[in-house]
User: Fold this.
Amino acid sequence: MKKREALSIGEIIRRAIEQTGKSDEFDRQQACFLWSEIVGPAINRQTTRRWIDRDTLHVTIASAALKNELLFLAPALVDRINSAVGRPVITQIIIH
Assistant:
């Protein structure tokens, strides 16, 4: 029997996702999930809903003042989320 190098669980899961052809969808969902880690707990508490539609992350914010501030930060947030995912997944964030 031939010995093979051990793979991490993460690498095994990544390969399985690639084999099913769902890696793009997985990366989009990962970008949506990373919102809370990127913006932090204070902003995440004001987030009532988030979803991905094609290459756009939609985020619903409860506070009007925070919503206005996030509109200015959206391009930087796109860059941070894409960097965390490891590749360009989203092109814009729409704040509702």
User: Anything to note?
Assistant: The helical segments are 9-20, 23-39, 41-46, 64-85. DSSP finds four helices and three strands in the chain. Residues 64-85 form the longest helix (22 residues).
